[in-house]
Specification:
This protein is mostly beta strands. It contains 7 helices and 63 strands. The strands form 20 sheets. It has a 5-stranded antiparallel β-sheet, with no helix packed on it. Strands 15, 16, 18, 19 and 20 form a 5-stranded antiparallel β-sheet that branches. It is globular and about 130 Å long.
Length: 1075
């Protein structure tokens, strides 16, 4: 904002030129550091003077850079860089592209993933990113790469399709032809009988018949109007505000979900007074039938209330809104009057609102009356006897003959305007087609489930979807990963179904002993022995891991040098070829989102340490972490007996570690064979040539099937377990050496474990365990009742429990009468009610639904899963508190409740002022202040807390105010309430008023200073020690298992064990202790 700067910002430059972009794409030229910058079609400025494309004057038209404008046009039409999914996203981003995809990266599956590359060739083979590489057959000649103009020469078909979609969907005002968009794909056959065939097609991607920015673009098929806010007002926004302006909440949503995006409106401060709201206006005043609000940050507890202002001067409230950041909050409305504006109140200053949408009733959307419906003409060859029109995207031709040839095209009709014809479908009646429920080999189908829907395992083209398998005719498709059945081709890929996999020719070992740095060990909080053996195959890598299943450093001292390490030792020293690390957490937290690292060292038989990986970045997306071991051939080989892992952060959690070696590679043992010995590579031992060969005893392992080549030296036995049993070790072969089966004592077949079963409203008892052939029985948790008779389940051979023949169902008794309310739902007056049942009550006269507007008298009680009724209650209608300057000057019959009569008599006057609290919750009139001598004034406020100070207290006559605040910004003034607890004044001051009796209200001597609460950390699911105190309502439930959102306590810091304990006296845990 300096007045003498010699440059313009991009927005200032475009604003100064002020070239409208509503009907065309603007191209700007500027001398700057970037080659070009384009507006994407989903940005809100796409039609304004701030849209368009800027290119550098120094590179435009220069040989070798001629295609840069084409590159920017690609962005204008919705294309990302071809390297977007690799170079422009973080390694842990869920949208990172590891293989060609329509859903990740640049959203085109005909461009291979690549790193950013300015050369006209593939990147060097040494280039790596996020564990990916080398990159081959990359699209460096694509216009959306960073190669020079002499190299780039094409868009891919999918890129062309994406650009056409945005032209039809977004840039209709730029199109010069006023024709309906055509049906873009060939119609598809979905059903056929002897005398009929049914076709479906997708509609055109736009209408484009009413001209630029027509209201018809906002009209839905039923005649209702869909509109976003066109104006906004936020009193808290300052003129100097740079980010999170109110304008960001206008128009359709464009912010990234679940992030504090600058494309949203935020209050942007810690406090939230009555002015913490944003008010929306709409272009068309309509009767609403549906409202949607996009809250992308602080969504769960962000919206305090939604207020509707109607054209007749009345208002109504929607009440508190519990939204989700990844989807809009949507509610149906039941109004019969037009809305003028909507005000959204927020609970704190960091609620991100991206957009608000209203959908009208069809009758109130008069602007849609002139919009013509879309009709589809089905054109056939041979022709129909008369033209065929339909408003649906499906048509059944009932005049076909078997073996006859037909062609079908679709034409879109809107009013008297027609689109071009769709591509033609050529069909002879009786031919096979995708969707007929039979897998047709001549059509190269891999499945056919009898429909043409994607997402059910079999695509609309009758191909099996990723992660699915389909069997039978018609095909039954299922998601195979995680179904509990280990299929043959899953052995190396599905940990959940098949357990830990060791490739043929390799051997894996799990640790048999573990030791961590004693400075950061504290029993029983972080025992190292959880790393002994294999971890649970159901273990997941996440931000806050369960410490009962993983190891994580504890006893953290942030003021000392933190040396976090753990040493893991294995039964047999081997020549290591790989280390596999299973993560419990990658260490990323809300307060520490940066990358974390592990340092790996090998410990040999002589306790010498060799570095393997100095800085290995750990990310949950790449769990488990495979680290290959490369041996220096200029040095002797060594055998590894242990591994040392050093962690860069105490937030990293380890679930398990595998040491991998080769079964047949051992260059050390042959060197130690004596003169009368030879090395047997099969048994990997030195064998004495002079001794007679020894036979091994027959191998016996319970619950197994054994197949052996013999019992002589070097013979092999292969072990497989019977149904219902599984090997306890990755090794399934043993070798006969020196008369005994090598390491056979380590192998056993253990029964599969079905794990403890779970079912709603039940308690299971498994006295004999949960393994194969064991039984469990269940009982219903009161008040749930049993439906069925058989309460026993059996652990079966596939590791799953047998089918349950009974279940527990929760009921509620008929709801008890609600105080001051009448039951309106007849079905709720008698008998028991199932969980989820809602019963409607109506508050009696003089009462209203608590927490809602005084006009709202209806409330609902819901039968919950615990067999209890929950819902709002009726509260007496109350009027606003009388102004504080009248404190102790008046008398009321019933405080400020409806019907209360209040009187006030001024000193020296005979006339009594009377007001009454009306049924609507408003006073009949307001008191008028008495006349006092000009010398009448309140004394200076007397403060007892030395941390307090007075502010703006120079006026002390009746009605004047004085602010009390704390000296430190980390504290705020508070008053004791009637219950002895304290409340928070979110303006960080207390306002005193000089009353008519010449005393300050409230009493200044009652004010004290308390440390402020971290508002953003309240009720966020993480226990914060600074908020775990009465003043902050015990972190609003985050530190107790019975009150935390999500049912699991998550500690902000692993060191706050005592300060983060459950201290809320009203929590169930503490109530149980007191009993």
């Amino acid at each position: 904002n300096l007045p003498f700067r010699v440059y313009l910002s991009m927005d200032e430059y475009k604003t100064a030129l002020n070239v409208n972009g509503s009907t065309h794409l603007n191209v700007y030229f500027a001398s700057w550091s970037l080659k070009g910058l384009a507006t994407f079609p989903w940005e809100k400025n796409v039609y304004s003077s701030l849209g368009g494309t800027i290119v550098d004057t120094n590179s435009f038209g220069v040989p070798g850079k001629l295609d840069e404008l084409i590159h920017e046009f690609g962005h204008n039409l919705g294309l990302w860089h071809v390297h977007h999914g690799v170079s422009e996203l973080k390694c842990n981003d869920r949208c990172r592209e590891t293989e060609p995809s329509l859903e990740l990266g640049d959203l085109c599956s005909d461009t291979l993933p690549t790193i950013q590359n300015r050369n006209c060739r593939d990147p060097d083979s040494t280039v790596r990113r996020c564990g990916m590489g080398p990159f081959k057959n990359t699209p460096f000649r694509n216009y959306m790469s960073y190669a020079s103009g002499n190299c780039t020469d094409h868009f891919t078909p999918q890129q062309v399709a994406r650009m056409h979609c945005y032209l039809d969907l977004v840039y209709q005002p730029w199109l010069t032809t006023m024709k309906p968009s055509p049906v873009p794909l060939v119609p598809k056959v979905v059903a056929a009988t002897v005398t009929s065939v049914t076709l479906v097609w997708i509609p055109g991607l736009g209408e484009n018949v009413y001209g630029p920015h027509s209201e018809c673009d906002m009209c839905l098929e039923d005649g209702s109007l869909l509109q976003y806010a066109s104006s906004a007002r936020a009193p808290s926004d300052s003129k100097r505000k740079i980010h999170w302006k109110k304008e960001e909440a206008l128009g359709p949503p464009d912010a990234e979900l679940c992030k504090a995006s600058r494309l949203t409106w935020m209050q942007e401060n810690d406090g939230c007074s009555e002015k913490c709201y944003i008010e929306f206006g709409f272009k068309y005043i309509i009767i609403p039938q549906r409202i949607s609000i996009w809250v992308v940050w602080e969504a769960a507890v962000g919206i305090k209330n939604v207020k509707f202002y109607f054209v007749d001067g009345t208002t109504d409230f929607l009440g508190p809104v519990k939204a989700f950041c990844d989807m809009p909050f949507t509610a149906r409305l039941n109004y019969n009057k037009k809305v003028k504006k909507i005000r959204v109140y927020t609970n704190n200053g960091y609620v991100g609102i991206d957009a608000i949408q209203l959908v009208s009733t069809p009758a109130s959307a008069r602007v849609c009356n002139s919009c013509r419906p879309t009709k589809y003409q089905v054109i056939r060859n041979p022709k129909f006897p008369r033209p065929v029109y339909t408003s649906n995207t499906m048509f059944t031709d009932r005049s076909v003959k078997r073996g006859a040839n037909y062609s079908y095209t679709i034409q879109v009709n809107i009013g008297n305007k027609k689109s071009t014809l769709s591509p033609s479908l050529y069909y002879y009646h009786g031919q096979p087609f995708c969707g007929n429920g039979r897998v047709e080999s001549q059509l190269a189908e891999s499945c056919d489930d009898g429909n043409v829907h994607n997402g059910d395992g079999c695509t609309m083209h009758c191909q099996v979807e990723k992660f699915y398998r389909c069997k039978g005719t018609p095909s039954l498709c299922y998601r195979y990963d995680g179904d509990g059945v280990c299929e043959k081709d899953e052995e190396g890929s599905s940990l959940r179904d098949c357990g830990f996999f060791t490739p043929p020719g390799y051997e894996d070992q799990w640790p048999i002993s573990v030791s961590g740095n004693p400075q950061h060990q504290k029993m029983p909080e972080c025992p190292e022995d959880v790393l002994i053996g294999a971890p649970s195959r159901f273990q997941e890598c996440k931000n806050n891991a369960d410490l009962s299943d993983v190891w994580q450093p504890c006893n953290i001292n942030f003021f000392s040098d933190n040396d976090y390490w753990v040493k893991l030792y294995f039964k047999r020293p081997v020549i290591a070829i790989a280390v596999i690390i299973y993560l419990g957490s990658d260490g990323r937290t809300y307060d520490s989102p940066e990358n974390k690292f592990i340092f790996i060292q090998l410990i040999d038989s002589n306790n010498q340490v060799t570095d393997v990986e100095r800085k290995l970045m750990v990310v949950c997306n790449t769990n488990p972490v495979h680290v290959s071991i490369f041996h220096d051939l200029s040095k002797p080989f060594f055998k590894t007996k242990g591994i040392k892992l050093s962690l860069s952060s105490a937030n990293i959690a380890i679930a398990g570690v595998r040491l991998r070696s080769s079964e047949n590679f051992d260059p050390i043992t042959p060197e130690n064979c004596g003169g009368d010995e030879f090395y047997n590579p099969r048994s990997q031992q030195c064998v004495n040539q002079t001794c007679p060969p020894m036979l091994c005893e027959p191998l016996v392992i319970r619950n197994s099937v054994i197949s052996c080549t013999g019992r002589s030296e070097s013979d092999v036995c292969h072990i497989s377990c019977m149904d219902g049993y599984q090997l306890n070790y990755a090794l399934n072969e043993v070798v006969c050496a020196d008369g005994h089966w090598q390491r056979s004592e380590e192998i056993s077949c253990l029964p599969v474990d079905c794990r403890l079963p779970s079912m709603v409203h039940t308690t299971f008892s498994c006295p004999y365990g949960t393994s194969y052939k064991k039984h469990c029985t269940f009982t219903c948790n009161p008040p749930a009742q049993l439906k069925g008779t058989n309460t026993t389940i059996l652990c079966e051979a596939n590791g799953r429990w047998s089918m349950v023949d009974a279940y527990c169902l929760t009921f509620c008794l008929s709801p008890l009468p609600r105080p001051h309310a009448q039951l309106m739902t007849r079905s709720c007056t008698h008998g028991i009610q199932q969980a989820g049942t809602r019963c409607r009550f109506r508050c009696k006269k003089g009462f209203h639904t608590e927490g809602l507007h005084t006009k709202r008298r209806s409330l609902h009680m819901t039968c919950r899963e615990n067999g209890q009724w929950s819902g709002r209650r009726c509260a007496r209608v109350k009027c606003a508190t009388i102004a504080p300057e009248f404190t102790r000057m008046y008398n009321c019959t019933e405080q400020n409740y409806e019907g209360s009569k209040c009187t006030l008599m001024c000193p020296g006057e005979r006339k009594i002022q009377k007001i009454k609290c009306l049924q609507k919750g408003i006073w009949s009139s307001n008191f008028k202040m008495c006349h006092f001598p000009k010398t009448s004034a309140c004394p200076l406020p007397l403060l007892h807390d030395h941390r307090l100070r007075k502010k703006n207290c120079h006026k002390r006559f009746v009605g004047s105010t004085c602010e009390i605040t704390c000296n430190s910004q980390m504290f705020q003034p508070v008053l004791p309430n009637m219950n002895g607890t304290t409340f928070t004044n979110k303006d960080y001051n207390v306002k005193l008023t000089c009353t008519g009796i010449l005393r300050w209200y409230p009493n200044p001597s009652d004010i004290t200073c308390k440390q402020i609460c971290q508002v953003r950390a309240l009720k966020d699911g993480w226990c914060d020690s600074s908020n775990n105190r009465p003043f902050c309502a015990w972190d609003q439930g985050d530190c107790c298992l019975s009150t935390v959102r999500g049912g699991k306590i998550q500690l902000v810091s692993p060191t706050c064990s005592d300060k983060c304990a459950c201290k809320d006296p009203n929590a169930i845990e503490n109530n149980n202790r007191s009993k």
